[in-house]
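Table S2 (text version). Query chain:
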Amino acid sequence: MFHVTFNKQVSMAYKPMQMQNIHHSTVSSILTLLRLSGSIIMAITYGYDAAPKDDPFVSKSIQLLESALRSVTPEYATLLTAFPVLTPIPSWLPGRRYKLKMEKCCNLARTILDDPVNFVKRNMVGSPMLDLIENKSIASIDEDHEEILKEVAASVFIAVSDTTLSAILVFFLAMMLYSEVQTKAQEEIDRVVGYDRLPDFSDRENLPYIGAIVLETLRWHPILLLGLPHTTTVDDVFSGVYIPRG
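Corresponding structure-token output:
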């Protein structure tokens, strides 16, 4: 799904959706930035036009993201990895309140997986998700195939919304620290775009200084760490090589 839906060529078709959401949004806080990025990815993935404020799909996704970040801490992850015997201990015992939080996260995650896909089925809105579902008739689609589609689509929102917000916040920090760069950037926008409209993708090739700022923002403080360790959850065989669990 990632390759089919978000490759470089296909992504060009999403520019109008992005511009429409950006031009109709008012940024007043960090939360509104997160909602903005969430609304854009919901429109692209599910063909869903989110409400500008308190949209149920976007709000639940943000709630899950915030709850998971508070609950899945490095301390608990390390402890349970080192001592898996602690996992089945009842949540009512002292020190196990995090398990209650995780149960709430799981319930919320189930809602986030199901509701947007049910919206697509119910309304038959044109979107990458509908295209993938229609590869098989909705009546005959097997549960495993549909579950995979749900999980991939939900992971798109989680991956895009938080990283986009982080990159924008890094940009804001850079503009506050280096006001002379902000001044030069504004001068270029005024010269190329003018004063009677907002920039759009058609201006990109005529805004080299803005493009350089974007690249420098991503280089200055990378959003994602590189070289994160990965482990298999089950025994696997890849290209004839046996990879044991863990």
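Notes on Table S2: The longest strand covers residues 236-238. Strands lie at 236-238, 241-243.
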